[in-house]
Amino acid sequence: MLARIAVRMFALALPALIAVGNASAQAVARPATFRTSTRMVLVPFTVTDYNGKTIVGLQSKDFSISEDQIAQQIVSFSNEDLPFSAGLVLDISGSMQSSLGAVKQAARDFVRTANPEDAFLLLTVSTQPGEISEFTTDTASLDESIAFTRPGGFTALIDTVYLGLNRMRKAPHPQRALVILSDGIENHSRYSRSELLRVALEADVQIYSIIVDNGAGASWVAGVPYRPSMIAKPWDQAAARQGPSLLEELAEKTGGLSFHARNDAEIKEAMGKAGQALRNQYVIGYQPVDSGLSGKWHRIHVKTTVPKVHVHARTGYYAP
Fold first, then answer.
1. Between residues 163 and 224, which one has the greater pLDDT?
2. Domains along the chain?
3. Rounded to an integer, what is the distance from CA 193 to the centroid of its chain?
4. pLDDT(240) > 80
5. DSSP string, 56-104
6. Bridging pattern class, strands 175-182 and 84-91
7. Which of 32, 20, 166 is closest to 89 using CA atoms?
8. Of 72, 94, 149, 165, which is least packed with CB atoms within 10 Å of its CB?
């Protein structure tokens, strides 16, 4: 019980990757769920079976965690359904015209099933990123905004996700995620793939990707969270997979999930699984040895003794 209270207090009091110092709690502008301090690292993660179903009811003894290949002692563990802040990134560019109806419906269903305290941000992907709504708990207004979006334009996907990560700094709740619904096509961004990946690794935001695929060159299993180990990437498919592979990588490295979907039913199913994952997260806390190296990347690996499941956790963090 004390461990769960400790985790919740940290989640409400500490900013993401705060610098070591004597700043008081009153000076913190925004809390976050993944952060480090001189005392604690908190790592949120999700466990699914290999069909993408979220696994609940696990305990601390079912997990182990390492940092830079050094085993860490778990000092706190929790699994609570807390309010979250979610940024919805809807691709409404011309290439999504045939799929936009199903994507919009899935997004509206996701918003309609929200808890009263959940907050949502709405961005659209087109020739330029569209900021449709700031963070709001007014789901009726958000539902209407989604319904009235219209397709068209080029695809500035990277720029829109980049903007979304920056806007998530104003998220009102510690648990924060971007949910991206897109075909992965990119043809109009100023930022590069590497710039976006860097920002994503530094941010305290999990990314969930629903990738709408036309089936060309696909070698994935619909409705199942993508894992790099599932497939080999032939050279002759590399160009066609650049967009989807970016969305897969963003999800993998930030502790989110990535799904492929080719029709209305699979889009709805994938969105439902993403919502379940957001609602049923675990949080491990541990106290690493202070390396004294500001800005150093620390690799994290969460493992479980439970068979036939997959752990979705971010791959590491930059030391403050």
1. 163
2. 84-279 (3.40.50.410)
3. 17
4. no
5. ----GGGEEEEETTEEE-EEEEE-----EEEEEEEE-SGGGTTTHHHHH
6. parallel
7. 166
8. 94
